[in-house]
Amino acid sequence: MKLRPSWLRVAVGSAGALLLAAGSAGAQTLQWLGATDGTIGDGVNVSADGSTLVFRVSSSEARRWTALGGSVVLGTSGTPRGISGDGTTIVGRAPGVYGFGHAWRWTAAGGLTVMPVTPSQPTPNGSYAAGISVLGRVAGGASTGFDAPAYWETTGSQTYIDSAGLGYQAFDISPDGSVIVGYRLAAACGQTCAMRWTDAGGGSFVGSAIGTNPNSGFGVAIKASSAGAVILGVNDSSADSGGWTWTAATGIQLLDTGGMEEAVGLGISHDGSLIVGYVATGANNTAAAWAGVGAPARTLAQLLLEDYGYSVGADFLALATDVSGDGRVIVGKGRQGGVGSTQVFRLELPAPAAVPALGSLALGAAALLLLTSTLLVLQRPARRPGG
Question: What angle do CA 188, 194, 198 make, to 5 degrees?
């Protein structure tokens, strides 16, 4: 009796399918999602779960992108500054007279609304939203000529976070909503002092009591990991100077430049294990990443080639502006094919290889048993008629 070829294909195919199901890894994907402006300060933001992006196309148009819905105009001018964990809430600042403007909140359910402002001293000329936590707590403040930092709860109520008020600005809020980071104008720093605020402890300088950066003595805190365990900052009030990290254990550390003139971190994963931003020499900047505090800089193109064997080819990744909570989705700006206008990119890295669960091990064992049985049948001598 001969083993039928169709039966063999089914048996070996089933075993192979079971082996694949027992443990497989995806591949990285690089997507180009349309035009945006080329400025560093007006970045591309991604939700903590990596599903949703928000970015500014121009001074008069902001967009939200999802895999299912594509790119949708939000119906507001100005700049989006943050997105909630699931991508359903976006906050930003619309332009206004003399640059004051107003803070806005967009939700998938309710659309666009202006965020309420509680009177302060002096009376606000406007407001701004700077960032949003995973669950929707918003950091921002009132514009009064100077800025008075504040936060908004999901209910819409606003609270100023520092009684000193004027001369402060919030830049972002940690994913868990417990820490707000920014700066304060203070003579002690010569210009600006990086700050962190908590509900329990109020405001405090990031770094030392006289500033942040050991080189210049002033700086701005611009991003924080969960609970503010790792804070990213720059040496002045723009994102055009050297960047640094801060932790309670290490204090201020300048980011490695990877042999370039400067480095700036713009986004950080929730646990602080991945920092993204750029390295630059002169006006030439390249998207970069650091595997946590104190790690060497690598360009995103270098990381993809060395860790995943993937070449970006002619595509140019200029800025990495944000990263999802688990560090798998990196977003930013660049040029597809290295030419043309600036576009938004979304880079999704493969999930790390997991230790197989007991169910997967059992599935793999079953696949091996099936394959072994098949091979034994193939090797068994054919029986003679009447034997």
Answer: 115
Domain residue limits at 123? 29-360
Selection from 267, 368, 374, 305 nearest residue 43 by Cα: 267
The reply to whether 386 falls in a domain is no
CA distance 273 to 250: 15
Pick from 156, 94, 157: nearest CA to 127:
94
For residue 254, give the CATH number of its domain: 2.130.10.10
Structure tokens of 162? 């520092």
Neighbour count for residue 4 (Cβ, 10 Å): 9
Q: Per residue in 319-340, pLDDT tens? A: 999 999 999 999 999 999 999 8
- What does pTM read for this prediction? 0.81
Q: Tell me how many domains the chain contains.
A: 1
Q: At what angle do helices 358-379 and 5-22 cross, to 10 degrees?
A: 160
In a domain, 10, yes or no: no
- Residue 247 in domain: yes
- How far is it, in rounded angstroms, from Cα 96 to Cα 228? 32
